[in-house]
Amino acid sequence: MGNITGDTFCEGLEIGSVAVKWVRRINSQEYYMGMKRHEGNPLEKVQEIIKRYPAKGKVKMVVTGQAVKGLFNLPYRSESECLERALAHFDLKPDILLSLGGEIFSVYTLKDGQIRNIIPSSKCAAGTGEFLVQQLQRMDLTLDRGIQESLKGNPVDLATRCSVYCKSDATHKLNKGECSRADIAKSLIDDLAKKVYKMVAAARWETRSIMIIGGLALNEPFIEQLRRLFKDSELIVREESPCFEAFGASLFADELPQQEAVFYSNISVKEPQAPFSMPPLRQSENLLDYRVEGNYARKVVEGAAYILGVDAGSTTTKAILFNLSRGTVDASCYLRTHGNPITAVNNCLQELVKQVGEKKIHVVQIAVTGSGRGIVSVFFENCPSFNEILSHARAAAEEVPDVDTVFEIGGQDSKFISFLNGIPVDYAMNDGCSAGTGSFLEEAVSVDMGISVEDISKKAESSLQPIAFGERCAAFINTDLRSALQQGALPEDVIAGLVYSIIRNYISRLVGVREVGERLLFQGGVALNKSVALAIAALTRRKVVVPQYPELMGCVGSCLMAQDMINEGELSQKTYNLGELLKGAMEVKGTFKCPACENICEIKKIQVRGKEFPFGGLCSKYEVKPKHSRLKDEGQDLVAVRNQLMFEKYGAETFRHPRGTIGIPLALTTYEFYPFYAKLINELGFNVSLSKASKEGNAKTLGSICYPCEIAHGAVYDLLQQGVDHIFLPHVFEGKNPDHQTHNYICGNAEIIPDLVRTAFNLDSGRLLQLPISFSDEFREASLKQIGKLGEQLCIDKNIAIRAGERAFARYESYKTEFEQFKKENLYKIITEPTIVLAGRPYVICSAEANLALPRKITSRGYNVVTADMLPQVEENGTDRNGVWYFTRQTINAINYAKKTPNVYICLVSCFSCVPDVSMYHTFRSKLAGEVFCYLEFDSHTAHAGFETRVGAFLDIIELKEREMSQKRNFKLEA
């Protein structure tokens, strides 16, 4: 479009979180509009628009958007006013208006064209258009290309609530060859549409007519998925939808008096407010031992023996040739994974072959680590693979022998490792926030600011006033970043602030109450960025060492661990040819079902260079185990024994002529009190129907709630689909109270779940049986009275119902007695070998739907698994007796027992948003100080990749400790 001349134009300008939107109206029928990403610099984009579409005369302009208020001295209207004005102009009266932008989704409920309520999405990047852009970029796809790819894909399950989990899940599936990039793109778009659908459902408003505005209105596959979800609604998408607020602003501009028209050149910009700042990063130079040498020369030695080390990470893949005699890295390659680890490994091999050239070398072994180590190990014909936490720990101890703390920050994962006498005894990985990883820093500066990764450190170090963004989630920091830039902050101050923010997040979320030692080593790809190391030094006030090649430390550690095994005679040397390895291709030659447990995993038969290998599954059954691993193939799974005793031996009877069927949700307190529930229902003359898993039903919650309560919603949904006559979901206040002194409350959410479910599914009191009940002796009579009332509700004599309750309590006591007897007869045999105690709520650790096959993952490594309620009672101290939570007291008893008992290790299992566990977390940690333990948190989006890494590291550290103890015992015997 060339110069537009004529009378005064009416213009609307909206500055959103990621884009500038502009509408120029020539007359009532003719207008121009456009949308442009501002990359954190909206003033520049506005100037570009003005330059490209100049006006010789004056313009009447109205601006909208929260960010624009602090930029221009122009008439302002709120987004709500602009939306209502635009709707009136087009005579539109939808029930719902969906504003789907880059950073925030909002549901507007309307009546006669007037906004009645605004429901914004949570401040999490996962529920936005920017999340889609970022996830596609990680697969090397632009937004347009990703949209096109999605048309060829099939949906797969992804953890799309959270950026970190989604990255892990997508990478894990791509690494295992379970899907294609097209499948991921399709799933991302479909799941984004499902989020919008759930937001609208939560609004509980009429949906006959729904209008869509915002940038996502241009995403056709997304719109089509919404049409399928809202099959009974009219979906309105107009040409003006992407710039709807700006269009409304242009209509308000038309109403301005002529004297408010201005020339573009006279539009004034407001003075920005100075943000809070942090000390310059360079002030901490004296605390940094930065050993990285840029472009340092490496030399492959003719005739030398090497180990090929590969770190197949989620974001990058690294490969090295490790000189066995000199302990040096003589060749290396560092490339992007782009969701395909095998292709990345092949590219790395090609680069190593170039670096070797014509020299003859001896590759005697291959060692792999990283999130993609499983599939890469198969590619190298089941070569040794090592957990990435231990690989990084081994490399750190070689670099700094007396290291006591390691900060490792990679593109997607961050790790904390603590050492005691040279042995890693504690570790943590990032779980719920991407703000403490390199990918967040890279995406923020490249996507939002258009600055290359290579320029980050130089700009950050030049900052004199780094902006204090704080320790906040990626979505909040992105908002603050854009706001700072919009107010005129210098890019170098913003970048330095982001660098500080990453480390503040890391320290807050990963380190937490853990102690940071005096010898701190910083490694991982992000350590190549000197400014991040300076931020660590500034915030910890510790001397920080960055090794010569921090990005390769995973490779180095895996090579050192393989070398240790060679030296100890546990791994033999072989002969590999790098060129021959390049010729290898992987083919899936079929699948089979693994019958080892109830998961019935599908295992792939992968052929590489004429050899076939099984690959896949939720547990370690088909993983290659180093020779030093436990020789016992399978441990004993007492979680399965507990479930069998509870749900089979003490399960329900089936009557030929029942009064009806009462459904029991297989969730929450059912995993503790099922023998009572089943017996009560049978004694009242009804058959019992247990629910099945329902992911669709899990999503029926009306608000944010913990994962076990989501599962309860899914269970109720399934029972409703089964058509049961009633659903039994009592208000359980207390568990069994053996000491008659301390309360044993179950959980606040578990107690109120009947009310939440009743509201979510609009159930009447006749369908949902939600009597209050307590299993403590003090409230036995009160509970029986409530059971009497339940009988009357079911048209059963009150006294008959009370007697049914008495028999149900007796049945539960019989179950507990037999359970106690089983413990006495079997536990002492089991704990003579290394045993893992799963300490947590039974509706998490015993639930196949919730626990991600955790017991199976452990037993397949040769360890026994028991639950916390199987352990004998340890004498409590005064502090422990003050606890009021039923399952928390079991966990504390398990910790006390494990500390006194050799071979017993604690795996703490919790769920995000669990209030009792959050309140006790620091107590758990302080009690376990100095012990090897694992802490896991679940939710509906927990990704297998990071979960397996944590569990694997826990078991590897136990094995390492056992080996050290065995060597010490042998040394004493020899002495």
From TrEMBL:
Query: Is DNA-binding found in the keyword set?
Result: no
Q: Name one GO molecular function term.
A: iron-sulfur cluster binding
Ranges of residues in domain DUF2229:
661-871
- Keyword tags: Iron, Iron-sulfur, Metal-binding
Q: Which Gene3D superfamilies match?
A: 3.30.420.40
Q: Which domain of life is it from?
A: Bacteria
Q: Where is the ATPase BadF/BadG/BcrA/BcrD type domain?
A: 104-253, 308-562
Q: Name one Pfam family in it.
A: DUF2229
Cofactor(s) needed: [4Fe-4S] cluster
Signal peptide as annotated in the record = none
Q: Which NCBIfam families match?
A: CoA_E_activ
Name of the featured protein: Activator of (R)-2-hydroxyglutaryl-CoA dehydratase
Upper lineage is: Bacteria, Bacillati, Bacillota, Negativicutes, Selenomonadales
